[in-house]
Amino acid sequence: MTDTPSGRVLVEKAFVYMTALAKECRKGVATSFEQHHKGLSFDQVETTLRKEITSWFMERDRNLKVQHEKSATGRPGEIMMTYAGTSKDARFKFHVDSVFTLAGSTLTSPSYMKSMNVYVDKREFTKP
Predict the structure, then answer these.
(1) Residue 17's domain spans which residues?
(2) Is residue 1 included in any domain, yes or no?
(3) Quick one: average pLDDT of 116-122?
(4) Could you tell me if residue 2 is inside a domain?
(5) Residue 97, domain member (yes or no)
(6) Backbone φ and ψ of 28, nearest 5°
(7) How many angstroms separate the CA atoms of 66 and 122, rounded?
(8) Chain-centre distance of CA 60, in angstroms?
């Protein structure tokens, strides 16, 4: 008989899987956002990006439950978001940082995605 993996091993596997998904998500969402939302006013970017990320995870893996936790804006054109998620083996958080180029100086100015980063931190993975 084989032993069931310990909680620590399951959490490690979930971390490795989420690291791979984070890279995939960055590529997929950034490409989709650039194609479908080019020139979107900056005041609509946060909600649109949040919906894109949530729907990407729903389509990619139905066993992961991902929920937006909070958003913050830094300098003009910067958005930082935190998501909480669960799988059958772990609870975790991941972060999305994105930078946009604004075509004007107001929040209603058209914006264009400059960069996006999705990252996970091993310290934010715990057993359910």
Answers:
(1) 7-124
(2) no
(3) 95
(4) no
(5) yes
(6) -65, -45
(7) 17
(8) 13
Which pLDDT tens digit goes with each residue over 15-24?
Answer: 999 999 999 9
Q: What is this structure's pTM?
A: 0.89
Q: Are 110 and 103 in contact (CB under 8 A)?
A: yes
34-to-26, 49, 71, 91 alpha-carbon distances in Å: 12, 11, 20, 31
Q: How many domains does the chain have?
A: 1
**Length of the chain in terms of residues written:** 128
- The rounded distance, in Å, linking the Cα atoms of 76 and 6 is 45
What is the phi/psi pair of residue 21, to 5°? Answer: -65, -35
CA-closest candidate to residue 10, choices 119, 126, 123, 120: 126
The 3-state secondary structure of the chain, one letter per residue: CCCCCCHHHHHHHHHHHHHHHHHHHHHHHHHHHHHHCCCEEHHHHHHHHHHHHHHHHHHHCCCCEEEEEEEEECCCCEEEEEEEEECCCCEEEEEEEEEEEECCCCCCCEEEEEEEEEEECHHHCECC
Per-residue pLDDT tens over the stretch 66-96: 999 999 988 889 999 999 999 998 999 999 9
Q: Identify whether 42 is part of a domain.
A: yes
